[in-house]
C-alpha cells in the first residue's frame, strides 16, 4: 500500500458536522439531515470525492453497495472513478436469476433483511470496492464481500462515510482481508455526546 495513503484519516469537515449537529438515539448516531434521509448533494459530493480519492488506489472497475442508504455515496464515488455502481436489492423479490442472496440483520430496522444481486452485474474477475454510509457491526459489508466473492469477483477494499469504532465492523471486515477506509470514526456515544477521533490538523 502507498506510504502516502491514510485510509482512515478523519475528514475534518465531516467530523465537525457530526460533533456539532449529530444527535443520539440509543446506540444510533443520527445525522440523517444530511447523509441518509434528507441528503445535501453538495456535502455528499464532497465526502464521496474524498472517499473516491482514497479508494482509487484499489483500481476498482465496479462499486458495490446495498439498498438504500449506501446508494447516494456509492453513486458519487462510482461517478468520480468513472465506473458503474451496483446495489444489492433489499426490497425486490424479482431479481433476475441466477442471483446470489444473503440474509443480514438491519441495525436500523431490527429485522432480518434479504440482499440479492444478479450475477449479470457482478462478474468473475471484476475488481470490486464496497461503499456504504455507515460501518457498524459490519454484517452488511461482510455479506456484500461474500456475495461478490461467490460471483468470482476480487474484492479490493471497502469505504464508509462513518465508522462506529465501538462496534466490531472494522475487525470483521479486515478479518476477511479487505482494507477499510472511513472518513469519520465515532469512538463512543456518552451522556448524549458524540466522541469522535480527531482530525490531526485540529
Ligand atoms: O455494519 P452494519 O452493522 O451492517 O450496519 C451498517 C448498515 O446499516 C445501515 O443499513 P440499514 O439496513 O439499517 O438501513 P438502510 O436500509 O437505510 O440502508 C447502513 O446503511 C449500513 O448498510
Automatic annotation (TrEMBL):
Signal peptide: none annotated. This is Xanthine phosphoribosyltransferase. Pfam families: Pribosyltran. It comes from the Bacteria. Its EC number is 2.4.2.22. It comes from Zoogloea oryzae. One of its GO terms (molecular function) is glycosyltransferase activity. Residues 54-168 form the Phosphoribosyltransferase domain. Keywords: Cytoplasm, Glycosyltransferase, Purine salvage, Transferase. It is an enzyme of class 2 (transferase). The lineage of its organism: Bacteria, Pseudomonadati, Pseudomonadota, Betaproteobacteria, Rhodocyclales. InterPro entries: PRTase-like, PRTase_dom, Pur/Pyrimidine_PRTase, Xanthine_PRibTrfase. The keyword Cytoplasm applies. Gene3D superfamilies: 3.40.50.2020. The keyword Manganese does not apply.
Amino acid at each position: 500500500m502507498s506510504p502516502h495513503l491514510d485510509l482512515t484519516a478523519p475528514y475534518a469537515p465531516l467530523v465537525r458536522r457530526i460533533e456539532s449537529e449529530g444527535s443520539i438515539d440509543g446506540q444510533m448516531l443520527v445525522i440523517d439531515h444530511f447523509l441518509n434521509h434528507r441528503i445535501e448533494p453538495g456535502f455528499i459530493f464532497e465526502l464521496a470525492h474524498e472517499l473516491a480519492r482514497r479508494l482509487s488506489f484499489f483500481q476498482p472497475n465496479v462499486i458495490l453497495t446495498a439498498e438504500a442508504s449506501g446508494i447516494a455515496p456509492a453513486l458519487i464515488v462510482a461517478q468520480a472513478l468513472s465506473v458503474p455502481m451496483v446495489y444489492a436489492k433489499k426490497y425486490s423479490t424479482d431479481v433476475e436469476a441466477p442471483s446470489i442472496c444473503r440474509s443480514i440483520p438491519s441495525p436500523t430496522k431490527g429485522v432480518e433483511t434479504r440482499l440479492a444481486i444478479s450475477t449479470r452485474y457482478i462478474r468473475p474477475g471484476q475488481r470490486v470496492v464496497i461503499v456504504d454510509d455507515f460501518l457498524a457491526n459490519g454484517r452488511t459489508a461482510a455479506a456484500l464481500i461474500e456475495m461478490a466473492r461467490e460471483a468470482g469477483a476480487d474484492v479490493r477494499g471497502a469505504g464508509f462515510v462513518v465508522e462506529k469504532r465501538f462496534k466490531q465492523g472494522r475487525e470483521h471486515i479486515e478479518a476477511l482481508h479487505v482494507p477499510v477506509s472511513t472518513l469519520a470514526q465515532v469512538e463512543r456515544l456518552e451522556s448524549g455526546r458524540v466522541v469522535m477521533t480527531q482530525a490531526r490538523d485540529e
